[in-house]
Write a structure and sequence with these properties.
HSP40/DNAj peptide-binding domain; 4-stranded antiparallel β-sheet; 12% helix
């Protein structure tokens, strides 16, 4: 059996040039410790880190042989939130620790019927959309629910 290439290093967005391929991952799929991944070109590798990592759109996974695989946010089912009181709606979303992508005239959140119902009662207009999801990081890091150092093989969160 052929052993799969291994990636144990993350190159943050903007710190690298040139990739061998890329892989598209949903928001949830970009949060892991060890995972077999398949590139859009069809070849597989294993990403294996000491601790759980949160990958961002535009990061690159560096394989042991030096090749880079770019991480891209995959399209996923989301709720588009619009309204005259967008700032207030964003506050309520954040108050519930719900990941949120903030844009000039809309917010994007994962499709959650309970949060959606609350937002509608606050005057939001909701539309189901399919788009890449790249929510804002939290005040203390990337916004995921971990707060530990990643050592020398992962970038700072």
């Amino acid at each position: 059996m052929t052993q799969l290439p291994i990636a144990q290093t993350i190159q943050p967005q903007g710190s690298w040039h040139g990739t061998a391929d890329h892989c598209r991952l949903t928001y949830e799929d970009r949060f892991f410790r060890r995972k077999k991944l398949t590139t859009t070109g069809g070849w597989s590798f294993v990403a294996d880190f000491e601790h759980t990592v949160s990958l961002d759109h535009g990061d690159a996974l560096e394989l042991a042989d030096g090749r880079l695989v770019e991480v891209q946010a995959a399209p996923e089912d989301l709720l588009e939130v619009r309204g005259l009181n967008l700032l207030q709606l964003a506050w309520h979303i954040g108050n519930r620790h719900t990941p949120c992508q903030i844009e000039v005239d809309r917010l994007l959140i994962q499709d959650d019927p309970v949060i959606g119902h609350m937002l509608e009662h606050l005057g939001a207009t909701l539309t189901r959309v399919t788009a890449p999801f790249t929510p804002e990081g939290g005040a203390y890091g990337h916004g995921r629910t971990h707060s530990h150092a990643h050592g020398h093989t992962a970038h700072e969160h």
